[in-house]
Amino acid sequence: MPTEMARKFRNALGCFTTGVCVAAARDAGGEAIGLTINSFASVSLEPPLILWSLDKGSDRMAVFEGASSFAVSVLGEADQALSQRLARKGEGLLEAGEWRAGPTGAPVLAQAIAHFDCDVFARYEGGDHVILLGHVRDFGLQEGDPPLIYFRGRYRELAPAKA
Ligand SMILES: Cc1cc2nc3c(=O)[nH]c(=O)nc-3n(C[C@H](O)[C@H](O)[C@H](O)COP(=O)(O)O)c2cc1C
User: Fold this and answer.
1) What is the rounded CA–CA span in Å between residue 139 and residue 163?
2) I want to staple 75 with a disulfide (CB 3.0 to 4.6 A). Which of 64, 79, 143, 146 is the partner?
3) Probe target for ligand 1 pocket from 15, 20, 21, 55, with the most ligand atoms within 8 Å of CB
4) Which ligand 1 atom sits closest to the C-alpha of 18?
5) Which fold has domain 17-154?
6) DSSP H/E element including 96
7) If DSSP codes are grouped into helix, strand and coil, which group holds residue 6?
8) What does the alpha-carbon distance between residue 79 and residue 56 come to, in Å, rounded to a whole number?
9) Residue ranges covered by each domain of the chain
10) Mean of the per-residue pLDDT values of the chain
């Protein structure tokens, strides 16, 4: 796609407001590696499935290719700095205290407002991304915590509708 059209395409996609999540898995040495994502989507209730997509150019691709499980943690308003850090090249390592292992062994963020601990159900080709479908083995949520929001390339906070 020509550069100008690619920019416009990104801008159009950015009009779709999303939450912000961290997808994380364990590398071969057991370290917890994560990245900021907003491609998260629910897929199926029976069986319980979710998906997200990973850029084939990501340095973290090898970790997710090698892992049989991953967790998606939904970020709250207080986690903008964490989201920014985990969106930087070379900064995928989660520190002790930031995460715990879910039942599958995948890293769940301590402060997540919701999380989905998954076995890899399928990987699909998706152009320059790989679509990862997760079979949810465990999940949880914190009632009432406000989410971090992303719209038109910027972090936002939730405001109540006017009436
Ligand atoms: C709000 C937001 C959402 C993002 N969503 C995705 C996503 O769904 N999939 C993806 O592969 N990268 C996504 N990224 C980019 C990755 O976080 C970033 O490219 C990556 O972690 C940088 O390092 P890497 O290229 O070494 O992986 C997103 C970034 C931000 C700020």
Assistant:
1) 33
2) 79
3) 55
4) 1
5) Pnp Oxidase; Chain A (2.30.110)
6) none
7) helix
8) 26
9) 17-154
10) 97
Confidence of residue 61 (pLDDT cuts 50, 70, 90): very high
Tell me how far apart the alpha carbons of residues 136 and 100 are, in angstroms, rounded to a whole number. 17
Give the percent of the chain with pLDDT over 70.
Answer: 100
pTM value is 0.97
Q: What is the distance between the alpha carbons of residues 106 and 151, in angstroms, rounded to a whole number? A: 28
Q: For a pocket test of ligand 1, which of 20, 37, 50 has the largest count of ligand atoms closer than 8 A to its C-beta?
A: 37
Which atom of ligand 1 lies closest to the CA of 87?
17
Q: Is the confidence at residue 144, as pLDDT, over 90?
A: no
